[in-house]
Amino acid sequence: MKNLLMMLFVLCSYLSAIDISQLPTNLSKHDEILITDKIFNSPIELLAPNMTFKKNTAGTENFGYNSKDFWIKLQLSNHSQEAHKTIFELGFTPMDYVDFYELDNDFKLLNHYESGDLRDIEKRVIKNKNHIFPLDFAPNETKTILLKVKNSGVVTADLKLFDRFDYFSNIYPKKEAFIISFLAVILFLTIYNAILFNSLKDISFVHYFIAMLNMFILQATLFGVAYEYTPFFGLWNLTALVNISAAIFTAFSVMFVNSFFELKKYSPKIYKFTTYMLIMVYAPMILLMLIPTTYQSVLPILPILGIFMLFYILFLAVIGWKKSPIRARYIFIGWGVSGLLMILYVLQMIGIIESKILSDITIRVGTLVEMVFFSFALGDKLKFLKDEISEIKIKALEYEKQMLLNSRLAIAGETVGNIAHQWRQPLNKLGSIIFKIRGSLYFKKELAKDELKENIQETEKVLNDMSKTIDLFLNFFTPSSSADEFFLISQCLNDSIKIIQDSLEASQITLDIDMQKDFSLHGSSIELAQVFLNIISNSKDIAISRNILNPKISIKCFLSENNIIIEINDNCGGIKIEPLHKIFEPYISTKENKNGTGLGLYIAKKIIIEKFEGDIVVASNADKTTFKIIVPNPPK
How far apart are CA 619 and CA 574, in angstroms? Predict the structure, then answer.
């Protein structure tokens, strides 16, 4: 009777067991589970018949966040007359520890394999990205499989059985190709955004780079690549890295949308609220996940927070669409598709819905869709930035032209005074000639031919000198048609001095010029003359305002290391502005009476740098100031 009952039990077990004749087989819907915090010390042969399992009626692969041990039981039967060599796969890489017990129909232990992340990879019995175990069946053989699963986070038991030859020759290489392609795309987009940030310095590219980097870490860990190539990080740390990188990815995705639409400019209140929220929520959460004792308590919040952040990102996209000029279409499409798949997958994992279509592959495809459309969005941002930069350049060019005009108008004001001063003497002389002719006519009633001829010649000379003065000033203010030819520095300097000579003499300022050699330069002599005039005029004005005793300006030109050096020194007591280099900034005037425009030295430096590929440096102390113009000596 006892033997009969045993035979009936074996027969029932055989009939209720999963038929493995058709491979591959998904086992996840046929398992039985036992969740317990008991520590079993007895041998597995004694434990197995007495362990009470319940059917996994939820129809889900995910058993939730729990610190207890999960025991999974499966009965597998080979109903065929042929032997089968199979691979049993647990497709969830970040598992802390897995015990695989292979028992026969009498619960006798046939094989025991261990896999997981508590030991170095090279010391594991089974080495693979997923946890795989060899399982052989004789014809008409039934086996009981017990899995003891331990994980500090969510437990996902994706159980499959494969033909061993097909697995290694067909399935595994395809899986490897998908993994390599998927990670390569993420890595490419990550590096691409790092390069874009380096060239454009836009913070949204940094946020996207960090988000994609953490997505790469997350997927590399889920695929098992991190376990294979970086075991030195610590295996528990790599397991925790899945959730930490997921949290960082979510936070920086929000920051990316926040900065992408430039909400700091267009919606500062939303920007400030988002920034504070991310700091207050994610900073302590990531910190708690780094601590093993608090890691478990944070995990149940992650999926809920992730779904909330998905809707918040769409909310930010709506705000950006309404208030920012940057287009939002790709953000909506990318995050909408990816987010919808993510929500459906989470709902399936917790047992609310059931679908054969949704899987981890679907989620990864959704991630790729999101990354592609986000890259399109960044392309839009790139175009927007280029247009913005072009507009800024146009405005900067107009601003620069206006500053140049202001500078020249300021010089024009001084020049009118110089013209008036230079014409005063010849006009007096003309008046004297006219007075002389009038006197002769009045007293003599007629003029001698020779006397009239002499007066005419003298008048012509005065008028000719006045015309040269006008030509000199006109040339200074008229763009040169010969702006691209060689000219002598001495001639350029003389033209500048002629304009201001009378003013220097009137102020009793001594001018000393030392030209070791008459060098030539290539470019516009008028522009270099403007540089000379600005510096000399500044020295003159300071000498007058400070009532300097025996003021002196000395100019020296010499060659040094294939550079032409032009030094302009004055003894007017130095420059009071600190730091000294600020004198070359626009609207910073060295004139103490505040009558300067503050553009002269800015324009001067700009001319030397841009037109002559040189530089101007300044040194100053309590006694004197030295401007040093350095330009390359052009080849002959």
Answer: 9
